[in-house]
User: Fold this.
Amino acid sequence: MQPIRKILIAVKNPDRRRHAVADKAIRLAKTLGASVEFFHAIAEPVFGEVQPLTGTSLQDIRREALALRQKRLDKIVERARGLGVKAEGSVEWDFPPHEAIVRRAVRVRADLIIAECHEGARRQWLMRLTDWELLRSSPVPVLLLKSGRPWRRKIVLAAVDPGHAHAKPSRLDSLIVEKGQQLSNALRGKFHLMHAVYPSAFGITFVDPAVDGITLAAIYEQQKATARTEFGEFADTAKVPRKRRHLVERDPETGIPAVAKAVRADVIVMGAVSRSGIKRLLIGNTAERVLSSIPCDVLVVKPAHFEKRVSTASRGMRVVAPVPLMPLPI
Assistant:
């Protein structure tokens, strides 16, 4: 099991007076015995003709913005060091934010990315484009924190799919359990395992309308029995006690949040496979679909040898042409 030695903590807004999510990440790093790097990407565009108007060059803007953000980030670094965590901070001009975070994580060889996920009305996730794209593009595990509230029950729930629906890499379930147990052991908490059984027998009717209801029901029950057997064997291999195994006959989008609420989980560990094109339209991504309804933080892991789709080179400052005050003549 690969230990978590380096954590990259993405700071969305260094100007905040309170950094509850960062404090939560610091506590986790101390528990894991990991060092941290607080990272902030300045992604705001700068108008290309500011110097004639203000007398300030782009180089001046770049330098002053970096210095200001770094100064504010250093305060969080000092807080971490005061708690006995080895910490540093870095600020870069780079865009878009999710690519900047991935680039930095890969560059410093981080074992985990911790990012804040915005919370909307009624305590549901308010996912922004940066959050979605970070999950899709990062080869490094991503822990999305919903709030700064500490984990009191220390219950970690791992959602697996031993049947490997939609050709999901078979090793991914083992990685999900590995990361979940690693976190649970560090927290001295309890590890739970679940599988949402969602037989696809009803899809046969679209292929062969002649299939009768009795045959369809038989296929449906057979698939459920197979799923139960596969889940039981997988849970035995993972050495999960029977009272901490949860098999629900629901689709993952509703089954995972339901089990999380029932066991009062602090963290859900899931796997994500980045898809594109027609596969995304037909299949989607379970991790993305359930995020709108899960009641806790979520750790998303990727299969081994996940292809990084983010360029290595930083894009630097984003300079855009100014918007004309008057419409241009045709």
Observations:
- The chain has a mean pLDDT of 83.
